[in-house]
Design brief:
The chain contains 8 helices and 11 strands. The chain is of the alpha+beta class. The chain has a 4-stranded antiparallel sheet with strand order 5-4-6-7. Helix 2 runs parallel beside helix 4 and helix 7 runs parallel beside helix 8. The chain is globular and about 70 Å long.
Length: 276
């Protein structure tokens, strides 16, 4: 019955305008619609006919300016009720991409409002300090609370990208920092060998910490695994704590790398008679 309803046209149905009548703004809206139609995982589209939504939007939503088109696209995406599917306008997209490149100009802080155990948001805090960035060099660590930026309250600050004066609450100590904006390399991987406590054969685990999924992430993880395996390391731990996110394709590549590690580790243990 649901299928019949979704396919049958009501009496007041009118066809969308022909392609020749579509404006540049209409075509931009359709491009966004096609991206979701092709790539969205849940093909029920939150219980609506995605095709009919396209037709209704072209008929009813004004798209005479770029602002109106963006508004129509945001309205369309809102019907999916999915916080991870949203429109990034060009400037916002450019800003979001800057942290996924191999290097960045800034002070090297990822900040946010972590959740308290009761679910409420806490004060603006340091989520992570980029390795070898200005903030890490100054001694700022994950968990530090940002009290003020340039002598102003940090309550409404979202992102740091320039020279700043910071007042930080680190444990019980209030500290003041002046961080100069500089270019630093975003190497997302730190790795080392760790001994297994209580092991009789001095077995070691390869520890890999991944701080962000930037464009170097998959290659850096592969290189770290290669070096650890040269030291006869077989099991690995991937630490994603305080990872700031990043590029989805890099996440997929790293998942594939980890899948291969799991399969090879299982084959090793089965062939050696060890039961997992």
């Amino acid at each position: 019955m649901a299928l019949a309803v979704s396919l049958s046209a009501p009496a007041y149905y009118t066809a969308p305008p022909p392609l020749s009548a579509l404006t540049e703004e209409n075509l931009l809206f359709l491009e966004a619609w096609h991206v979701v139609d092709h790539g969205y995982y849940y093909k029920s589209f939150n219980g609506q006919s995605w095709f009919r939504y396209r037709e209704r939007s072209l008929r009813n939503n004004p798209m005479n300016t770029r602002h109106e088109t963006y508004a129509a696209i945001k309205k369309m995406l809102a019907t999916l009720d999915d916080p991870f599917t949203r429109l990034l306008e060009p400037e916002k997209f450019k800003s979001s991409r800057s942290g996924t490149q191999g290097a960045l100009m800034g002070v090297g802080l990822s900040i946010g409002y972590p959740l308290a155990p009761n679910g409420s948001t806490t004060r603006l805090s340091v989520m992570s300090a980029a390795p070898r960035g200005p903030a890490e060099k100054a001694g700022i660590v994950s968990g530090d609370v940002i009290l003020a930026i340039d002598d102003a309250s940090a309550q409404d600050i979202w992102v740091l990208r320039s020279s700043v004066d910071l007042t930080i609450l680190s444990g019980a100590d209030t500290r003041h920092f002046v961080l100069k904006r500089e270019r630093y390399t975003l190497n997302p991987v730190m790795s080392r060998m760790c001994e297994i406590p209580g092991s009789e054969d001095s077995s070691e685990i390869g520890y890999i910490k991944l701080t962000t999924f930037n464009q170097n992430a998959a290659g850096s993880v592969k290189e770290a695994i290669k070096k650890l395996r040269e030291n006869n390391v077989k099991p690995f731990v991937l630490d994603l704590r305080n990872n700031s996110g990043g590029l989805f394709p890099e996440g997929i590549e790293i998942a594939k790398i980890w899948r291969d590690i799991v399969f090879s580790f299982r084959r090793f243990n089965y062939s050696s008679g060890y039961k997992m």
